[in-house]
Fold each of these.
Amino acid sequence: MSSDTDVSLSSYDEDQGSKLIRKAREAPFVPIGMAGFAAIVAYGLYKLKSRGNTKMSVHLIHMRVAAQGFVVGAMTLGMGYSMYQEFWAKPKP
């Protein structure tokens, strides 16, 4: 291989666990959104058997909207947090 096509493999040496921890420190609301999504899906599956007269499609739509709402809310909070850190929390020179 030629030297101009060599790529630094330092990012590939990182295992999955340390990469997840690093990414969680960079954007802390991403794992919160993922955990909330998983919790809402688990709750929806738990309530699936006791949904009463509600149609399956209506139940699934409600759970999808709740999960998406949680993820969008976490993304919005994360964006606000990063904007706060970038623009207001920086010490002025």
Note: The helical segments are 16-26, 29-48, 56-88.
Amino acid sequence: MGRKKRVPEFEETAPDDFDPANPYKDPVAMLEMREHIVREKWIDIEKAKILRDKVKWCYRIEGVNHLQKCRHLVRQYLDATRGIGWGKDGRHPSLHGPKVEEVESE
């Protein structure tokens, strides 16, 4: 008789009662929101790792033709790595990419 392995249960969506304007109003919702954000970041990081392994495999298999054959994987990998991670600058993920210069209209 062995023990049954239990899988921890968690919500896959953000908590409904979290108020971003006043995060300390409900401490339980704040912690649930923090766990949700961390879980989503880890998922994005692991997706990027899988894509990185695919790029490595493609480079190794394709050899000298890797520039043409692996271009789509490299683009997916670069898009997946943009805006993820644990940076302390607090910027929104859309601001992590390359700077886009605004064109002045006449």
Note: Residues 27-86 form one domain.
Amino acid sequence: MDHHSSSSTFETAMPRLIACLIIFLPIIGSTVTGKPSYCSRVADHFFPCVTYLIEFEFKPEDGCCGGIEELNKMAKHNKRAPENICQCIEDMDYVMNVPFVASRIQSLPDECRVHFSFPISIGMKCSE
């Protein structure tokens, strides 16, 4: 892929990603957990990782690894928290309609030097 086509893809995809998040995230949050702010909090912590997971960035942004650490803290609050976090991320990915790259998902724990306390994968099997 040449630099020009990568740049134009980024220029057209990123505004769409942001618009989808602004419009649909409050709806998703209230649907998934009954708490509009829960998925919004998940998105705040996870969104800095998205550009890495969809291969727009070579390394995760500064806020990504810190966000994963915050999500790990949230995951320890109750037994269903890891599944709820996963579901929020799955819904965010679905709304953005830009798939995460499997190799990037697998490399994120090493890049951030952190273990995930919640499931995340291409299939997003949140209940397992």
Note: The longest helix spans residues 3-33.
Amino acid sequence: MRATARLLQSCRITFFTRKTCGLCTQARSVLSDVWDQRPFAFKEVDIVDPKSKPWLDLYDFDVPVIHISKSEAPEEDPKLSSQAVKLMHRFTVDQVKAKMDLVEKS
């Protein structure tokens, strides 16, 4: 059972968002549809939160942004964001699943 649960959540998606973001609402819906088909570990980062300032500096005009990584990977680091597997702005269920496939194979 434990191995199955780990397999089901072999990816982590970090969702960079802000409260006043219409595209973020759409992105959240896409992520919910992905979750229904393929569960993943999830972390949400409100870039406007003062402790998320490095993310605000990076993604102020780009949210929504998702980083897809292996679930056991270290927490996201703004200094390494250029290396992240990511999608920005508008994305589909199929695009998210394709990035998850890429991460799982790496």
Note: Helices lie at 2-8, 22-37, 53-59, 93-105.
